Amino acid sequence: MFMVVILTTFFISGLCSIFLIQMPSEKKKVIFYSNQEGSCLKNVFIKAIKKAQKDLIIHTFALTDLKALSHLELKATQGVTLRILSDYNNLPVNFGYFKHKLNWSGVKTSGLMHQKVLLIDDSLTFLGTANMTYESMKMHDNFLMGFYHRDLNTFFKEYTQKIPLTRYTKNVQSKTFYLSGQALEIWMLPFKGQKPLLRLLELIETAKHSIDISIFTLTHPSILKSLQSAAQKGVKINLHLDKTSAQGASSKALESLKDSCINIKLSQGIQLLHHKMMLIDNTYFIIGSANWTKSAFEKNHDFYCILSPLTKQQLRQIQSVFKAIKKESQ
Question: What pLDDT score does 172 carry?
């Protein structure tokens, strides 16, 4: 009897964790989700997939989560039009089974298919840092933004049609969308020219009082230089970096920053600090799939976006996430 009660409790808890998740809507066009704030990103993805009635598009570095795959397969049998793009080198062993069933393609270019995008029907768009793997959605530190906006959804659908599967092509334009008094600036990578990088550097260099960063990999020399310059001008910079990356790909960058006035902390948990986000002057929130590397800006299928000005609730959520990151770092 005791075991029945325990199992029933877990079952009800699992159902509630999905049903109680709020999706973006006409009333609330932007919603943030973070596992460091208690959101289960896997349940967010599953609920979004279950909402699809007409079409569903996924861009991801890897898609291996069995529960997500089972729900996608169910949607295909229900007549929902699917389109899935993932990195060619991260296709699952059972890709052949899913290839035609889910309209799934592996993108094989000189860089990586590294985007994390989920489009549902004609109005829901989810952008963030989590791949559709069990580890990324359930274990690693990630952040997700959900939007209710038809033009944004259409923009990514049109972009999906243009993505080359086997050759190298760069983007040539950005797009800004407006949502209830906020601007959402989208930069798709790789880009023909330096505009996305220059825009990011501009935001850093015009910061007035504070920059908070949480990022998995930081190696881009121009970004490092801009951060050092901002710190020298008196801007308070808190940099949180994944400890695995700090000991590997980002080690030289970390060494170059050691004599700056930047407050640097490394993650300490067993999970990856997989964020790629920055908060500037409590006004601009920059987040995307792109790590701050030359490959992200010049080779990978990546993106980053800028949301501003932040609402009070959004700022509280972001600050809460950074507080949790700080607590788990040293």
Answer: 82
Residue 261 CB: number of other CB atoms within 10 A?
14
List beta partners, residue 280. Answer: 211, 284
Per the CB < 8 A criterion, the answer to whether 126 and 144 are in contact is: yes
- What is the biggest distance separating any 2 CA atoms in the chain, rounded to whole angstroms? 66
Question: What is the dihedral angle through the alpha carbons of 35, 39, 42, 43, rounded to the nearest 10 degrees?
Answer: 170
The CATH number assigned to the domain holding 132 equals: 3.30.870.10
Helix (H) / strand (E) element for 128: namely strand 124-128
- Domain final position from 111, 135, 162: 162
Instruction: Quote the pLDDT of residue 3.
Output: 46
210-237 residue pLDDT tens:
999 999 999 999 999 999 999 999 999 9
Nearest Cα to Cα of residue 81 among 121, 24, 132: 121
Q: Answer whether 306's CB lies under 8 Å from 203's CB.
A: yes
Count Cα atoms within 13 angstroms, Cβ side, for 63. Answer: 32
Predicted confidence at residue 259, as pLDDT, reads: 81
pLDDT of residue 40: 95
Q: How high does pLDDT run on average in the chain?
A: 92
Same domain, 108 and 184: no
The string of DSSP letters for 271-330 reads: S-B--EEEEETTTEEEEES--BSHHHHHTSBEEEEEEESPPHHHHHHHHHHHHHHHHTB-
- Indicate whether 102 and 179 sit together in one domain: no
Q: How far is CA 125 from CA 150, 200, 231, 283, in A?
A: 9, 23, 35, 22
Look at residue 55 in the predicted model and tell me its pLDDT. Answer: 98
Domain count, the chain: 2
State which of 127, 162, 197 marks the end of a domain. 162
| pLDDT < 50 positions in the chain | 2-16
Angle at which helix 195-205 crosses helix 221-232, to 10 degrees, equals 20
Q: Can you give the pLDDT at residue 169? A: 78
Report pLDDT for 168: 73
- Domain co-membership, 130 together with 196: no
